[in-house]
Design a protein that fits this description.
Mean pLDDT: 79
Helix content: 55-70%
CATH architecture of the domain at 5-261: 3-Layer(aba) Sandwich
Distance between the termini: 73 Å
Largest sheet: 7 strands, mixed
Radius of gyration: 30 Å
Number of strands: 11
Strand content: 5-15%
Shape: elongated
Strand order of the largest sheet: 2-3-4-1-5-6-8
CATH superfamily of the domain at 5-261: P-loop containing nucleotide triphosphate hydrolases
Length: 699
């Protein structure tokens, strides 16, 4: 079997690089971060002929090797560092047929590094509709490379691409551009000073402000003493390099590419005029959001009920089947009940990721970013800030990481600080269970589900809080700045089912496994705290029966009283009673208080915590939702989760910073504990005051 070799998948944003990666690797991929930084690292295995395997690294999207962001630095650092274990044996540059001229700039730079480079021209299925013709043989000859004409949508051309990858050693490494034409005198001086070095690689080392990791600096001992150009002159020479490359690209495409615009059937421009309209564009976006939240509630009801009842039955089966004892109770009341509190939300979370993936794949999300730029500028932000805010609906952690593309520090800092206000998927379980308990399942105008409207209102509230906070911070932070917003509008396309499916599976799996680990640990701790206690806890049976002598309570009712008494006298009950005075003005009892505190580990732990607490001592086969609905305020028959306490909880979680992982990533991105601490204190105060006012008014 041949040795596994490395393939770097490189390309501009919006060229379909991720689709190509998915086609080559399928589900044989993993996602992590590059060591020491927050840039996402995607890698996978592609099986080729004769048992050969290619390790494919999907590098962050970049327009050129002149880095302006952390994402682009990653690409340059890898391509110049032969000691890196991921250093590519072959590079595959993914281009898009309609933007070939711009995409080829990156291709020529990569090829000039002396790495075998394959050109994969994607979206070839559009050539006929766009009246584009391309002389592949002539283009291969001029670029001195091999070309694969592919379509990730139609799944065509990938066999040819795999064959080229397998035979990469046959591809010429001759550069497209002689580096010395950029500045003959300067490069002649470089050649004399460093006679054994590749000129173009040396040029990139000199001009790029990046960390080259294990790069052997001894090879470049003369760099320190070499009299280099000033920063302004280097910038001018970089611009000259770009001009020289485009001159070469123009000559090549003049001979090989032909576009008959008269016969092209362009639908994009007409659709853009509608979707990005300064009035109708917002109405359309609002309507799409409304449809999403209606679907989340309406479509997911059946699988959610099935999962809820299944976990209740499983818990009861464990109690009936296994011998009585602490281990059985831990499984039934702690582990199963806690995990049931998160698994029940898989359908709704999957639907949310499904819609987000469809919007991104179709090209509409870029229009949303462009549309919202008009709004954001008034609040001290730009359209670039919308990307983290929109992606924050999935998770605040990657959303905060996404701010690294914002060059302006003030804009970036404000975006980092306000992003946690947007409703992430971790809040979704809390919202869904509380809404289902306190908001009636009715329809407005016979069409709209009232619960779906409430969920949408919470999303809009979170986004509004982020915008308003950004406005205040823009006025408060005295940092001078100026920035410009540039975004590329990708072509519209029908989302590829495979890409959407992989996104939904990976994101949902990541959510469930990530939350599951925390919930499992916390559920065990909570069960132990709720199942043991000092003093009266150990004599609960005797005390309760003594108190009920002469009453007409049945044996079943007395057992319920004993379970309730033991819970209050347990360690968790003592802790809950201690914090109850602080949460009582919000309409919460000690059980909800414990859930609120434990959910600081992760917001979604709230439901799992209550599921664990309410299931301790429960012998009935009840679902989580039924247990929470049956909870009453002591001394009354009023439900604990009524409209006032429910709205109070919803508002608390809408504003609270209930996520230690987000705090950690904010510290990492700002390189200071100052900002995450202000974030935690500020959001907690806002959440408490808002929930307090809401409960006192509505109660």
């Amino acid at each position: 079997m041949a040795k596994q070799f490395n393939v770097a998948l490189i390309g501009n944003p919006n060229t379909g690089k991720t689709s190509v990666f998915n086609r080559l690797t399928g589900l044989n991929q993993k996602v992590g971060n590059y060591p020491g930084i927050t840039v996402e690292k995607k890698e996978g295995i592609c099986k080729l002929d004769r048992g050969v395997k290619a390790h494919i690294l999907d590098l962050p999207g970049t327009y050129s090797l002149n880095a302006s962001s952390l994402d682009e630095n990653v690409v340059i650092e890898l391509m110049l560092n032969k000691n890196d274990k991921d250093y590519p044996d072959v590079a595959v540059v993914v281009c898009e047929i309609e933007n070939l001229k711009r995409n080829l700039l990156l291709f020529t730079q990569i090829k000039d590094l002396g790495i075998p480079t394959i050109l994969a021209i994607n979206m070839s299925d559009r050539m006929k509709r766009k009246a584009i013709s391309l002389d592949i043989e002539k283009l291969e000859e001029r670029l001195e490379t091999k070309i694969a004409l592919i379509s990730s949508r139609k799944n065509t051309g990938f066999d040819a691409l795999k064959s080229l990858i397998a035979n990469y050693k046959q591809i010429s490494t001759k550069p497209c551009l002689d580096a010395s034409v950029i500045a003959p005198e300067y490069f002649d001086q470089l050649r004399k000073t460093f006679p054994n070095q590749d000129l173009y690689k040396l040029w990139l080392v000199i001009t790029q402000d990046v960390n080259f990791g294990k790069l052997d600096r001894n090879e470049f001992q003369g760099v320190g003493s070499f009299k280099t150009e000033s920063k302004s002159n280097l910038k001018r020479l970089q611009q000259k390099e770009t001009i020289k490359r485009y001159q070469f690209i123009n000559e090549v495409l003049k001979e090989t590419l032909e576009i008959d615009t008269a016969n092209a059937k362009d639908f994009r421009s007409r659709l853009d005029r509608i979707l990005t309209h300064k009035v109708w564009g917002y109405f359309i976006f609002f309507g799409i959001l409304l449809l999403i939240f209606q679907a989340i509630f309406d479509w997911s009801g059946y699988p959610m009920d099935f999962i809820d009842e299944s976990f209740a039955s499983l818990s009861e089966w464990v109690k009936d089947t296994l011998p009585p004892g602490d281990f059985t109770n831990l499984l039934a009341e702690g582990v199963i009940a806690g995990l049931g509190g998160i698994v029940i939300f898989i359908p709704q979370i999957a639907f949310l990721f499904l819609f987000i993936s469809v919007l991104e794949e179709s090209g509409y999300m870029s229009r949303v970013v462009f549309l919202m730029d008009r709004v954001m500028r008034r609040f001290g932000l730009s359209g670039k800030s919308v990307v983290p805010l929109v992606s924050g609906t999935a998770c605040a952690i990657p959303a905060v990481m996404a701010t690294r593309n914002i060059e302006n520090w003030k804009e970036r800092l404000i975006t980092i600080l306000v992003t946690p206000f947007t409703t992430c998927s971790a809040r979704l379980p809390v919202y869904l269970i509380i809404i289902s308990l306190v908001i009636p399942e009715e329809r407005v105008l016979g069409i709209f589900n009232l619960q779906g409207l409430t969920l949408m209102a919470l999303y809009l509230l979170g986004f509004g809080a982020a915008i308003f906070s950004a406005y205040l911070l823009d006025k408060m932070l005295k940092i001078r700045s100026r920035s410009f917003f540039v975004i590329e509008m990708p072509n519209y396309k029908v989302p590829m089912p495979k890409n959407v499916l992989i996104t939904v599976i990976e994101k949902t799996k990541s959510f469930v496994l990530g939350a599951g680990k925390i919930i499992l640990a916390i559920s065990i701790v909570l069960w132990v705290l709720a199942s043991y206690g000092p003093g009266d806890f150990n004599n609960a049976d005797e005390i309760v029966r003594q108190q009920n002598i002469g009453t007409s309570l049945t044996e079943e009712e007395i057992e319920t009283e004993i379970a309730s008494f033991k819970l209050e006298k347990s360690y968790i009950g003592i802790l809950g009673k201690a914090i109850e005075p602080a949460v009582a003005p919000l309409g919460y009892d000690w059980k909800i208080g414990i859930a609120v505190i434990s959910s600081f580990a992760a917001r979604e732990v709230f439901v799992g915590t209550l599921a664990t607490i309410y299931s301790v001592g429960s012998e009935e086969e009840e679902t989580i939702k039924n247990r929470m609905a049956a909870e009453v305020i002591p001394g009354t028959n009023k439900p604990r989760f009524n409209f006032a306490s429910g709205i109070s909880l919803l508002l608390f979680y809408a504003f609270a910073m209930q996520c230690m992982s987000t705090l950690a990533i904010v510290k990492r991105e700002t390189n200071s504990w100052k900002w995450p601490m202000w974030q935690l204190i500020g959001m907690s105060v806002i959440a408490y005051i808002t929930a307090l006012i809401a409960y006192q008014i509505l109660n």
